[in-house]
């Protein structure tokens, strides 16, 4: 998925409330009609809305300011002013909004879900509200209240069924391109994947699941080295994890333990997720080498061997993922 954007900061402003009316009724046959000023309408809200057709924050990338309409003023004959038009910010599922203090204002998890980020100002009361026995013709009304404004940061954490976890060049991009229509950048140097990629993987009987290729972890990612926290956070939103250890690794089990430790350092709860172990680039191995590599792992952590280049073991891998997801 090209042009992935997972972090956007926008200045938002809700609408001011409309002013109440201080109108006094003046009709030919009603010389002392009294106050009949209506209330002002509330200002427009700024609302974040989930949209299943959006996969990235790219549509918001060049948006600097979002402003809702102010409420309309009250009118005579006790007519309330119209509400200011609300502004909707459509975002993908998995989007979090934070205020200027870094606090989470809301999180979108469902299509059509709406969260008010900034409420419009309330409309002012018209003079009809201030009529009393001692003041039967009040000539004043309330002004509308100001709306809210400030910067909102939108942050997307990928929602996927399975997240690929591995060092740079573990073969994650090759796997994704082999089992889906996604076309991530593939090359033999570190950090080819600088942004997450999503692919829809077809299983059997037209069923499918979503796979996320997440940029490679290096030792120290939990402390912000390499691509750091920015991409570790995407792993939080995956249902299961698939660890990829390349066949040409010097120590397969040790590489798995390093990856596992990085996730633990970042967020220990990640280790509560179901996961699968796999060895990529299996086209480089014969049966004897596969047995030797499998022997490095405990009985309950046996890896699946596959090759994204030749297709070896891909169906078995997809079957294992499906069983984990729906077993």
Automatic annotation (TrEMBL):
CDD domains in the record:
Obg
The UniProt keyword set, sorted, is: Cytoplasm, GTP-binding, Hydrolase, Magnesium, Metal-binding, Nucleotide-binding
Which superkingdom heads the taxonomic lineage of this protein's source? Answer: Bacteria
Where is the protein localized? Cytoplasm
**Which GO biological process entries does UniProt record here?**
ribosome biogenesis
Among Pfam families, the record links this protein to: GTP1_OBG, MMR_HSR1
Enumerate the residues binding Mg(2+).
173, 193
Function, as annotated, reads: An essential GTPase which binds GTP, GDP and possibly (p)ppGpp with moderate affinity, with high nucleotide exchange rates and a fairly low GTP hydrolysis rate. Plays a role in control of the cell cycle, stress response, ribosome biogenesis and in those bacteria that undergo differentiation, in morphogenesis control.
What family does this chain come from, according to its entry? Belongs to the TRAFAC class OBG-HflX-like GTPase superfamily. OBG GTPase family.
Name of this protein = GTPase Obg
Gene name in the database record: obg
């Amino acid at each position: 998925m090209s042009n992935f954007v997972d972090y956007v900061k926008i200045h938002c402003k809700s609408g001011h409330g409309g002013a109440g009316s201080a109108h006094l009724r003046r009709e030919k046959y009603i010389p002392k009609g009294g106050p009949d000023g209506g209330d002002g309408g509330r200002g427009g809200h700024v609302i974040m809305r989930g949209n299943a057709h959006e996969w990235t924050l790219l549509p918001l990338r060049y948006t600097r300011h979002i402003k809702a309409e102010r409420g309309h003023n009250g009118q005579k004959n006790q007519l309330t002013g119209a509400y200011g038009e609300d502004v909707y910010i459509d975002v993908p599922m998995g989007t979090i909004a934070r205020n200027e203090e870094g606090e989470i204002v809301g999180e979108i998890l469902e299509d059509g879900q709406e969260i008010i980020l900034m409420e419009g100002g309330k409309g002012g009361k018209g003079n009809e509200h201030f009529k009393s026995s001692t003041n039967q013709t009040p000539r004043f009304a309330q002004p509308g209240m100001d709306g809210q404004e400030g910067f909102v940061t939108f942050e997307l954490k990928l929602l996927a069924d399975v997240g690929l976890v591995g060092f740079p060049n573990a073969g994650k991009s090759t796997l994704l391109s082999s089992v889906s229509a996604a076309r991530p950048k593939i090359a033999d140097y570190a950090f080819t994947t600088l942004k997450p990629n999503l692919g829809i993987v077809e299983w059997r009987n037209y069923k499918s699941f979503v796979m996320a290729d997440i940029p490679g972890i290096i030792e120290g990612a939990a402390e912000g080295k390499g691509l750091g926290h920015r991409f570790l956070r995407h792993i939080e939103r995956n249902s299961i994890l698939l660890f990829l250890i390349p066949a040409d690794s010097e120590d397969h089990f040790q590489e798995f333990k390093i990856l596992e430790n990085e996730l633990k350092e970042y967020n220990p709860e990640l280790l509560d997720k179901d996961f699968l172990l796999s060895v990529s680039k299996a086209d480089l191995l014969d049966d004897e080498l596969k047995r030797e590599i499998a022997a490095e792992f405990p009985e309950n952590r046996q890896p699946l061997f596959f090759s994204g280049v030749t297709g070896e073991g891909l169906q078995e891998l997809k079957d294992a993922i499906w069983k984990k997801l729906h077993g």
